[in-house]
Every structure is written in C-alpha cells, then in structure tokens.
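BUG: 3D viewer hangs when loading the predicted structure for this chain

Environment: internal workstation, default settings.
Expected: structure renders.
Actual: progress bar stalls at 90%.

Input used:
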Amino acid sequence: MKQFILIIFASITMTAAQDTTQVQDTMQKAVKEFVQSDVFPQFPGGKEAMAYFLNKNLVYPSAARKQKIEGTTKCTFVIEKDGSVTNVTIKESSGNELLDQEAVRVISKMPKWMPGFKDGKAVRVKFDMPVHFKL
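Structure tokens produced before the viewer hung:
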C-alpha cells in the first residue's frame, strides 16, 4: 500500500519537481486565461506540503484497483482572491469515471491557498493539474 501511495505522490508532484523555469512557464500559461499575476498563488507550506496533502487524501477507487485501471485525470480549478479552491472541473478524462471523480474530490478538498496578486491586489488565477493513478 505504501508503494502505491508513493507512486501517486511521485506522479502528482512531477510538475513540482521540474526546474523553476518550466514550472513558471506552466503557471504563466495557466494564468493567461484569467489574469497575468505578479505573484502566483501558493499552496500553504509550498510544493512539499501540497504533495503531502495529496498523498494523505487521495484514495485509489477500490473498483478501479480491482480492475487494475490506471490513468491520468487533468483537472482545472480556480484559486479565488481569498485563496479558496473553486470551479474544479475535468479538463481531460482518464477514461474512467471513478478516477475522474476522485481527482475532482481531492482537489476540491484542498485548503485555502495564498492567493495570487497583480499590482498589489488579490486576483483569481486558473490552474491545470494532472492527477496520476498508477498501480
């Protein structure tokens, strides 16, 4: 079970492990759809804390596990001006409804982030995030 969780942990944090330039480029592309912020939103405690949160809260659906179903669900969500996570939707399905529902559930459960800022004012920022399910 721990190996399974560590695989999910590593898969989810793959984007966080990219070099700074790639992460900033990815974040800037996501931000362009809403507003170009000066300061990007951050999960409280940073990337490591987000990886820990996902590791603790993501539950591989038992029916999908029994059928050995794997996949990646790409979700889109908004970090609001107050840091809350809203509008969690599936941008690209894994092909399995159970995996998609779990990805949406765990992202929706995230605590408030530190919001993004533009010209000293909090702004809404849109993010894309893949959630990998691998046995």
